[in-house]
Each structure stands twice: as structure tokens, then as C-alpha cells.
Amino acid sequence: MHAPATYQGNEPLGPDLNSLVRAAQANDEVTELDAIMYNKYTRQPEKLRAWQSASHVERAPQREKKTPTPPTPPPA
């Protein structure tokens, strides 16, 4: 869920939605910085790895979707 580009944080959205909007904006900024840091530190792999480690955002674990098992046919 991404907020519209025109949202400036002026309108109250409620605590949950406001947090989601700010998280999306921060993620967009980190993505932009990733490109800058890659270009700047391409020839300095240790610094590039340090940036990648520092900018990594850990996400909550996702449950695997269960695949439905087909019904077994009744014995004939």
C-alpha cells in the first residue's frame, strides 16, 4: 500500500494508516539511496556491503500458504 505522491503528512489519517504511509515513504527513500550508494561505492565492496547491511529492513516472517489437498475418491 503506497500513499499518493501528494501526501505531505498534514492530514490526520489515524495511527495505523499514518504509520503505513510513513513506512512506505521511508522505503522509497531507502530505495533511492540504494542506487546512490551503489554508484558511489561500486569499487569499494566493503563499504557497499556495510551500506547494504545497515539499510536492510527485516520483515516479519510470512506464513507459507497451505495448498489444498485434493479429496480422495471413496473406495469402490
Question: Can you lay out the helices and strands and say which pair or pack?
Answer:
Layout: H1 15-40, H2 45-55
Helix pairs in contact: 1-2
What's a concise summary of this model?
By secondary structure, the chain is mainly alpha-helical. It has two helices and no strands.
Class inferred from helices and paired strands: mainly alpha
Q: How many H/I helices? A: 2
User: What's the number of extended β-strand segments?
Assistant: 0
Mean pLDDT equals 80
Strand composition percent: under 5%
Largest sheet, in brief, is:
none
Low-confidence stretches: none
Could you explain the architecture of this structure?
By secondary structure, the chain is mainly alpha-helical. The protein has a domain at about 15-55. It has two helices and no strands. It has helices at about 15-40, 45-55. Helix 1 (about 15-40) packs antiparallel against helix 2 (about 45-55). The longest helix has 26 residues, at about 15-40. The radius of gyration is 21 Å and the shape is flat.
Task: Supply the key terms.
0% strand; flat; 76 residues; 2 helices
